[in-house]
Amino acid sequence: ADSVIDAEIDFPENPPYSAAGVLFRYSDAASYCSVLVSTKGYFRIETVFNGTPMPLVAWTELPPQTDLSKPVHLKIIALGDRLTLVVNGEWAAEVVDSTLSAGHVAFAAANYGEADRAEARLLSFRVDSRPIDVEAAHYRWSAYLRVDGGARLRLAETFSAMGQPMSALIQL
Fold first, then answer.
1. Are 117 and 111 in contact (CB under 8 A)?
2. What is the percent of the chain where pLDDT is above 90?
């Protein structure tokens, strides 16, 4: 249920349009949460419930320092209904979603049809579900560390484009 997921993902040189990331709180092929990073420099957070996708954060630019020619480190902190995403040590997003509360974890990849085949590698993977460690990670990234204003602005722009003005205002 509550966990800190660390995954390091690598794309080959000059990849076709594709994405890779993590499925979590996975109960079956029709109900899960996902975090994906695309080869075009964006991330998204989504919950799929009974086969219906519900974007929590639509495609949003990765932190500017992200170099896709190097491995991308994702940290997903899931504590209760709060989901926090950290990319390469930079806060990227935090959302609230109570749709799914527990489930399995898996590596995920998607090919968006630019080529017959797309490839991504999972270099490392770690899940920590010890309550004190999950809470410490959550408070570290949501209350203790200062979040870059540019990250909040990128997230606010995404929420605005998604038709969620209140979520955008909270980020501003």
1. yes
2. 84
